[in-house]
């Protein structure tokens, strides 16, 4: 058995696959992935890695739909249908506890709660194992309150702070108790993107900090989130996302935590053939937390429960970095739609 398979056998830590090609899908399911995530950059990624497949979908859709955003959404749906089909048997065999695939709306509509709700209606038709991916900002929270009442499975995303995690979990508990519905609920800490933003700040401001301390920042916040979820009994599962290094998986091993990875990172973990070591319970020395808090304002905002208020979530620098990547991916897809349409009309 490879490293990932031994982790799955020996610990409660579980694997999801992120934005896969068709080949990635087959290998991920064979390795033991139980769910999958997509985001608004999915089709852009496929244009880079599986262009013939996605361009066939684009060429079909643009003959049916004139509006570019509407066409982009349908292309995203059709590309994700293959993804959902690959996990449908897992969904059925697990009785609807595993096998989910997430979809997220056009990022330009993140601040329109009704648009988010409307997108879930459209996307839920793609497959029975659909899961809504909702950004943890105020409009996303408003949408989630509606979706819990509709019993829609939810993955809360773009989460970078303890404040976001707690407020989203409290909202879920409140709405669930009020309406009697408790759909599957995952809260995602985007560890790698958080670390990217922290590192960019250090380089820009020329902060004097030991790189061995800096590299721990995102994992330190995620471990605290995990402890809070368990101590307070929130009915959710922490999902690690946005991995940019192997430690964004290995540092969480042993926890009742799921992590979504690109296939390239899964391959690197398999090749590493390391031993399975429980890391989720590691205690961070207080002096490291103090240094990170003193030198990095965004770490302090992320680490302490009162570090951010809900109106501040949307402008939090790590969240903006992540959202910008989605906006770029969506723009790439629209540009491709325009180019393919022009070629067709020549």
Describe the protein's architecture and organization.
- This protein has helices at 3-10, 22-31, 42-49, 51-64, 68-93, 113-123, 138-149, 162-179, 191-205, 211-214, 217-232, 247-250, 263-272, 286-295, 297-303, 317-345; strands at 14-18, 35-37, 101-103, 130-135, 154-159, 185-190, 237-241, 258-261.
- With 346 residues, it is an alpha/beta fold.
- The protein has a single domain, classed as TIM Barrel, CATH 3.20.20.
- It has an eight-stranded parallel barrel, surrounded by ten helices.
- Helix 5 crosses helix 16.
- It is globular, with a radius of gyration of 20 Å.
- The N and C termini lie far apart (54 Å).
> Terminal Cα separation, in Å?
54 Å
Number of helices: 16
Major beta sheet, strand line-up: 1-2-3-4-5-6-7-8
Tell me the count of domains. Answer: 1
Per CATH, the class reads Alpha Beta
Coarse structural class? alpha/beta
The largest sheet, given as strand count, sense and whether it forms a barrel, is:
8 strands, parallel, barrel
CATH 2nd-level architecture: Alpha-Beta Barrel
Overall mean pLDDT: 97
Inertia-based shape: globular
What fold name stands as the CATH topology? TIM Barrel
What portion of the residues fall into strands of 2 or more residues? Answer: 5-15%
Let me know the CATH homologous superfamily.
Answer: Aldolase class I
Task: Give the uncertain stretches in residue-range form.
Answer: none
Query: Rounded to an integer, what's the Rg over CA atoms?
Result: 20 Å
Number of strands: 8
Q: Assign a percent range to the helix content.
A: 55-70%
Reading the helices and strands in chain order gives HEHEHHHEHEHEHEHHHEHEHHHH
């Amino acid at each position: 058995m490879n490293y990932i398979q031994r982790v799955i056998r020996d610990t409660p830590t579980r694997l999801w696959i992120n934005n896969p090609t068709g080949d990635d899908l087959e290998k991920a399911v064979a390795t033991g992935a139980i769910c999958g995530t997509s985001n608004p950059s999915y089709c852009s990624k496929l244009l880079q890695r599986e262009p013939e497949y996605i361009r066939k979908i684009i060429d079909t859709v643009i003959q049916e739909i004139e509006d570019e955003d509407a066409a982009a959404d349908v292309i995203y749906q059709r590309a994700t249908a293959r993804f959902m089909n690959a996990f449908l048997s897992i969904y059925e065999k697990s009785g609807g506890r595993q096998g989910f695939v997430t979809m997220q709306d056009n990022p330009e509509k993140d601040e329109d709660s009704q648009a988010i709700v409307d997108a879930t209606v459209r996307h839920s038709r793609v497959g029975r194992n659909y899961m809504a991916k909702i950004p943890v900002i105020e409009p996303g929270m408003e949408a989630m309150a509606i979706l819990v009442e509709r019993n829609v499975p939810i993955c809360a995303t773009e989460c970078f702070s303890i404040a976001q995690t707690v407020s989203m979990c409290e909202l879920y508990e409140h709405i669930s108790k009020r309406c009697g519905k408790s759909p599957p609920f995952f809260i995602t800490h985007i560890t790698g993107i958080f670390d990217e933003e922290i590192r960019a700040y250090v380089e820009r401001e020329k902060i004097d900090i030991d790189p061995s301390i800096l590299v721990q920042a995102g994992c330190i916040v995620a471990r605290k989130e995990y402890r809070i979820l368990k101590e307070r009994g929130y009915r959710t599962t922490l999902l690690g996302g946005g991995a940019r290094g192997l430690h964004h998986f290995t540092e969480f091993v042993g926890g009742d935590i799921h992590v979504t990875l690109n296939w390239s990172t899964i391959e690197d973990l398999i090749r590493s053939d390391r031993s399975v070591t429980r890391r989720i319970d590691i205690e961070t020395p207080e002096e490291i937390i103090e240094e990170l808090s003193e030198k990095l304002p965004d770490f302090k905002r992320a680490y302490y429960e009162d570090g951010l208020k809900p109106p501040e979530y949307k402008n939090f620098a790590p969240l903006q970095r992540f959202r910008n990547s989605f906006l770029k991916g969506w723009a790439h897809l629209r540009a491709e739609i325009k180019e393919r349409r022009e070629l067709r009309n020549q």
